[in-house]
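ok so for the tutorial part 2 we go from a plain amino acid sequence to predicted structure tokens. step 1 is just haveing the sequence, like this:
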Amino acid sequence: MGFVSRFTAEVTSADVGRRATLRVRLPEGGFRDIVGVLESWREGVILVRRRDGRVTEVTADDIVASKIVPREPPRRRSAGGRPTADG
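step 2 — the prediction. this is what the tokens look like for a chain of 87 residues:
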């Protein structure tokens, strides 16, 4: 028996301000995952602020799966106060 992926949509407009992952259907086929904080959700257009600060616009109709995820943990620092190689 193989692995079966179940697509669910848990995120709603009430989740603005929370961190989420969105699986979006691409126009050319396939999917892309976007993770970030939901900045706004108006008239079917969602703005997501990604970790690098960029804002990505997503159309709600293109979302095939979504869920709320925990806040990103703070980056670890080395003894010298600099981020470690893995963070």
